[in-house]
Each structure stands twice: as structure tokens, then as C-alpha cells.
């Protein structure tokens, strides 16, 4: 279960808007998080609370394949991105980093709504009354997300086999 406040964006949010090029000079994930969504909202990282979610339209994460975009979002405190669709490389990077990419019709969700995402039953409840169906990654993708990323998943799997 993920519960948090919505930060809503539109269609075609690209990785340059998520983390602009000039801020890619560090590998510190918390420094990257300071500039999360800086290409759209310079105050975004100051507004986010741990557990919040990003909601967007079509083609979220398009543009370059930079995984720093996913890292900036995750280390900002965001637990999931709910969008109508994702750029394929962003979707895969999100799973690898441990950020839930969730597909749903986001038309009825608004900025500052409080959402609760039931990952197991694939339902989103907004403001305790609106219920939406969603698609959550399954199979090994879900196992990677539950392990909070590919590296953790790899370590968990290797420790179980010994």
C-alpha cells in the first residue's frame, strides 16, 4: 500500500524537465533530488513529503535514457509515479531503481488529492471516494520493486541460494 499526496503534471514530461542537464554533475542521489522536476517547478523538491506520488498523463519520462531522472524522483521521497503511459526506458529504469511505475487513467486525479494505491488489488482510491483501476508491474518486475530495486533483489536472491 502506498499513500500520499498527488503532484500532478501533464503529458510528455521528459527527463530534461525531471532533472535538467546542468544538475547531472553529481552521483549523490540526495543532491539530484534537490533538482527533481526543476525544469517544470523549481520548488517541487521543497513541497514533496515522503510517500507522495507524481501523477501525469501520456509518455512520462520520455527523452534521454538518463537513470538520474528516476533517482531524483525516488530520493525526493516519491514512492510511485501514476501515468497514462511511460516511455519504455523510464519504465524499466523505475523498476531497476525501485520506484513504482503505475499505469492508470489519471484524468480525474488532481494536484493535492490524497491517494491510496492498493498494489495487490490494483486499485487507486483518491480522497477516500474515487476508485480507479490501475496496472502494477507483475512477476519478476514486482519482486524487484518489492526489494526496492534490482541491486537489492540480486543480493536477496544470492543470499537465499547459499
UniProtKB/TrEMBL annotation:
GO BP term, pick one: L-leucine biosynthetic process
CDD domains: IPMI_Swivel (cd01577)
Top-rank lineage group of the source organism: Archaea
Name of the featured protein: 3-isopropylmalate dehydratase small subunit
Function, in words: Catalyzes the isomerization between 2-isopropylmalate and 3-isopropylmalate, via the formation of 2-isopropylmaleate.
Domain Aconitase A/isopropylmalate dehydratase small subunit swivel: start-end pairs: 41-102
Family, similarity comment: Belongs to the LeuD family. LeuD type 2 subfamily.
GO molecular function, one term: 3-isopropylmalate dehydratase activity
Gene name as annotated: leuD
Catalytic reaction list: (2R,3S)-3-isopropylmalate = (2S)-2-isopropylmalate
Gene3D superfamilies attached to this UniProt entry: Aconitase, domain 4
Pathway the protein takes part in: Amino-acid biosynthesis; L-leucine biosynthesis; L-leucine from 3-methyl-2-oxobutanoate: step 2/4
Record keywords, A-Z: Amino-acid biosynthesis, Branched-chain amino acid biosynthesis, Leucine biosynthesis, Lyase
Enzyme Commission number: 4.2.1.33
Description of how the protein assembles with itself and partners: Heterodimer of LeuC and LeuD.
Amino acid at each position: 500500500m502506498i499513500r500520499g499526496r498527488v503532484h500532478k503534471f501533464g503529458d510528455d514530461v521528459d527527463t530534461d524537465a525531471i532533472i535538467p542537464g546542468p544538475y547531472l554533475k553529481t552521483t549523490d542521489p540526495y543532491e539530484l533530488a534537490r533538482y527533481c522536476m526543476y525544469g517544470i517547478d523549481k520548488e517541487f523538491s521543497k513541497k514533496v513529503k515522503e510517500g507522495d506520488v507524481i501523477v501525469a498523463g501520456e509518455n512520462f519520462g520520455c527523452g534521454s535514457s538518463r537513470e538520474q531522472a528516476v533517482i531524483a524522483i525516488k530520493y525526493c521521497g516519491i514512492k510511485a509515479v501514476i501515468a497514462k503511459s511511460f516511455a519504455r526506458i523510464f519504465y524499466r529504469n523505475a523498476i531497476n531503481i525501485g520506484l513504482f511505475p503505475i499505469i492508470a487513467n489519471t484524468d480525474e486525479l488532481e494536484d493535492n488529492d490524497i491517494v491510496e494505491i492498493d498494489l495487490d488489488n490494483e486499485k487507486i482510491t483518491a480522497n477516500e471516494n474515487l476508485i480507479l483501476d490501475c496496472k502494477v508491474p507483475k512477476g519478476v518486475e514486482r519482486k524487484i520493486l518489492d526489494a526496492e530495486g534490482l541491486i537489492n533483489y540480486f543480493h536477496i536472491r544470492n543470499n537465499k541460494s547459499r
